[in-house]
Write a structure and sequence with these properties.
The complex is a heterodimer.
Chain A: E1 2-11, E2 14-24, E3 29-33, H1 40-48, E4 53-62, E5 65-66, H2 72-78, E6 80-83, E7 90-94, H3 95-109, H4 117-130, H5 135-139, E8 141-142, H6 148-162, E9 166-170, H7 178-191, E10 197-202, H8 206-210, E11 215-220, E12 223-228, H9 230-239, H10 242-248
Parallel strand pairs in A: 3-10, 3-11, 6-9, 9-10
Antiparallel strand pairs in A: 1-2, 1-4, 4-5, 7-8, 11-12
Helix pairs in contact in A: 2-3, 6-7
Chain B: H1 3-16, H2 24-37, H3 52-55, E1 61-62, H4 72-76, E2 87-92, E3 95-102, E4 109-112, H5 113-116, H6 122-128, H7 139-147, E5 151-155, E6 165-172, E7 178-180, E8 183-188, E9 193-203, E10 208-218, E11 223-231, E12 236-246, E13 251-260, E14 263-272, E15 278-287, E16 292-301, E17 307-316, E18 321-330, E19 338-347, E20 353-362, E21 368-376, H8 380-387, H9 393-409, H10 415-432
Parallel strand pairs in B: 1-7, 2-6, 5-8, 6-9, 7-10, 8-10, 9-11, 10-12, 11-13, 12-14, 13-15, 14-16, 15-17, 16-18, 17-19, 18-20, 19-21
Antiparallel strand pairs in B: 2-3, 4-5
Helix pairs in contact in B: 1-2, 2-7, 8-9, 9-10
Classes of the chains: A alpha/beta, B alpha/beta.
């Protein structure tokens, strides 16, 4: 589904990703872990098409297409979804109006008919229930004045509405209490099937208790330095990232 | 002959025919002021960014006769939605046209200023006509008063006018360049309620300037709402003055929507002359091309315990220019004043500019006043967020801008008009962003 080959990218003059290789197949959950500044969020941003980053080498293929050639909205149309670490507040745009526009734009891209009002409402109600959201929340301006937990629930609600093939969850657990993490992770689990995949980016093991990964990769200084199964995440949690540094013998920058 | 002399000559002719009018002394004195001051230059601080003198270099015709060559279809073309259930006042080239106007509410009286000045309303006219000149000491305001052919609108005590009052300012610039000088004096009596919607339309391809003065007096427990929609062509400039004087504890609300035109200058004054009065002033300007919008507002807190709230938002595209100047006076007696002001701007065009200036002059010590202004570009992170959900960039920008405009548009109470303005803005967002 997603194939990342020797991906190099940076911002302005600074090289952040120094050759990432990753292969994600349908039905899989991959977790990328790593210390602050290792390039986790950069990877998520580059995959979603954020303009601030410049790709300097390598390739990303999604379902056979060159992902890097596509605009952010085309990537969404193809089925890539990024759950933002910091969802943006948009004053004056209701969540309902926003998600309706998004759903229909994505459908247009995929050559599907626009959803009529009845079908849209039905779909929305179903997904609201999944994320334990109420109508009042959807009538409010998008993310404006939402708590951290509400914002992240809203992200997964959008994911549920757009039904992506690949969901990238960028530190979806940050700033959430344990109840909110459970709601968010349960939502994602219910959306999983053999045709879609999830890439979870996180600092901590705790989200992975609920959202169990098939593969865990450790990102360090712009490279994946170690890959393993879910046990690797537990080991990291216990020993900290220093153990990786020692194991691979990376020298600290001065 | 300078253009000032040209206008003086025309005004002398117009005034000569009405020398016996009770308004003659005010007109004469205004003409003296205009003669002394001429048109403001950019050296005048209040006109620094709006070079109105450059417009008046031209000799525009002042309308001195009744309009004859005008037909109903020209009016129909500019009518606003909901007009079937509205009172409609039509000005053509600055002169009130009884023929084309339509009054459907019994609760409102409309008569010429001339007639009002000599009948039962004489005291009101005497007390309040041209009271805006105290705040606007320049040749522009004087030019209008020297002409003063307008109407007097009276809402009697405790009358709630069930239909809104639509005012159309039409300029017939088909044959030649015209300067229209419409004038209204409105008196909203004790416990009365009325709402106005005003708009502007220039016909023909010649240049025009509308220099308008509307003075609204609001008595005890009265409620007035006033909405102005400016969406004229790029050769149509205007100076539009709205002067609201709350003489009793009352409520006033204004919404000013400025979308198109040449050089557009709005003067909005609210004089809070009675304790416990409340006023809200909202504005939205969305300019493109080379258009210029200038909103000068004054809130004068004369008496204590008044509340005013002002929010103006602007979107400036292409090479358009914007000016916001918000002055708040809190006089020595105006203790416990609450006055808020905010001006927010989004610059879309790289060559668009805005000058924003709040000015607070506070002479009382127990007051709450705040002001703030922002100038920025559209939020890139917001655009990316929407794009990442499959929404194309242009649609994303349009949604963000509609969201920005929303809290002003929501303040338009008349649903027909709110929908109309929303559609104008949506259409502009689809075609021009």
């Amino acid at each position: 589904m997603l194939r990342i080959d020797n991906l190099q990218a940076g911002i302005e003059e600074k090289q952040i990703l120094k050759g990432i290789n990753l292969d994600i197949k349908p039905g899989e959950v991959h977790a990328i872990m790593g210390p602050n500044g290792s390039g986790k969020s950069t990877l998520a941003s580059v995959l979603a098409g954020r303009q601030d980053y410049e790709v300097t080498g390598g390739s990303v293929t999604f379902e056979g297409k060159d992902l890097l050639e596509l605009s952010p909205e085309e990537r969404a149309g193809e089925g890539v979804f990024l759950s933002f670490q910091y969802p943006v507040e948009i004053p004056g745009l209701s969540t309902t109006n926003f998600i309706k526009t998004a759903v229909n734009e994505v459908r247009k891209y995929r050559g599907q008919e626009q959803l009529d009002a009845v079908s849209f409402l039905k779909l929305m109600k179903e997904k609201m229930a999944l994320m334990e959201m109420d109508q009042a929340m959807l009538s409010r301006s998008l993310n404006e004045g939402f708590s951290g937990g509400e914002k992240k629930r809203n992200e997964i609600f959008q994911m549920a509405m757009l039904q992506p093939k690949l969901a990238i969850l960028d530190e979806t657990d940050s700033g959430l209490d344990i109840d909110a993490i459970r709601i968010v992770a349960n939502g994602v689990n219910k959306l999983r099937n053999e045709n879609n995949a999830v890439l979870v980016i996180t600092h901590y093991q705790r989200l992975l208790d609920y959202l169990v990964p098939d593969f865990v990769h450790v990102l360090y200084k712009g490279r994946i330095v170690k890959s393993g199964t879910k046990e690797l995440a537990l080991e990291l949690e216990k020993k900290g990232y220093d153990f990786i540094k020692n194991e691979i013998g990376v020298e600290e920058d001065v | 002959m300078s253009t000032v002399d040209y206008y003086i000559e025309q005004l002398n002719t117009i005034q000569a025919a009405k020398q016996d009018s009770p308004l003659a002394p005010v007109r004469k004195s205004a003409l003296d002021t205009f003669t002394n001051m001429g048109f403001p230059t950019s050296r005048n601080e209040e006109w620094k960014y709006t070079r109105i003198g450059s417009i008046f270099k031209k000799e525009f015709r002042l309308q001195n006769e009744d309009i004859t060559s005008f037909n109903q279809s020209s009016i129909d073309a500019v009518r606003l939605p909901g007009h079937e259930n509205a009172n409609e006042l039509v000005f053509v080239n600055g002169r009130y046209s009884e023929e084309f106007s339509k009054i459907i509410s019994d609760e409102i009286i409309v008569t010429s200023l001339e007639a009002a000045a000599s009948d039962e309303y004489a005291d009101i006219v005497k007390a309040y006509f041209n009271s805006s000149s105290k705040y606007l000491k320049d040749g522009i305001n004087a030019l209008n008063a020297a002409y003063a052919q307008g109407v007097f609108i009276y809402v009697p005590k405790a009358k709630v006018v069930p239909h809104p009052v639509y005012i159309y300012n039409i300029v017939d610039a088909v044959a030649d360049a015209v300067c229209a000088l419409p004038r209204c004096l409105v008196y909203v009596s004790e416990a009365a309620e009325v709402s106005f919607v005003e708009t502007y339309a220039t016909l023909g391809a010649s240049e025009s300037i509308t220099n308008q003065v509307t003075e609204i007096i609001v008595a005890e427990n009265a409620n007035v709402s006033y909405c102005k929609i400016q969406n004229d062509n790029s050769k149509a400039s205007q100076v539009s003055t709205t002067h609201i004087h709350q003489v009793g504890k009352s409520y006033a609300e204004t919404v000013t929507i400025s979308l198109d035109g040449g050089i557009v200058r709005n003067n909005l004054n609210i004089v809070m002359g009675a304790a416990h009065s409340e006023a809200h002033m909202y504005g939205l300007y969305f300019q493109n091309g080379e258009s210029h919008i200038d909103n000068h507002t004054i809130v004068d807190n004369v008496m204590p315990h008044c509340q005013s709230n002002e929010l103006y938002k602007g979107i400036l595209n292409d090479r358009s220019t914007g000016v916001f100047n918000g002055r708040i006076y809190v006089r020595q007696d105006a203790q416990k004043t609450n006055a808020f002001q905010s001006n927010k701007n989004i610059l879309l065009g790289e060559n668009a500019t805005v000058n924003t200036q709040p000015q607070l002059e506070i002479f009382a010590d127990d007051v709450k006043c705040s002001h703030g202004c922002t100038v920025g570009s559209l939020d890139e992170e917001g655009i990316f967020y929407l794009q990442s959900r499959g929404i194309p960039k242009e649609v994303a920008m349009s949604l963000l801008l509609q969201g920005f405009a929303l809290d002003i548009l929501e303040k338009i109470k008349i649903e027909h008009i709110r929908t109309y303005v929303q559609e104008l803005i949506a259409a502009r967002l689809t075609t021009q962003i």
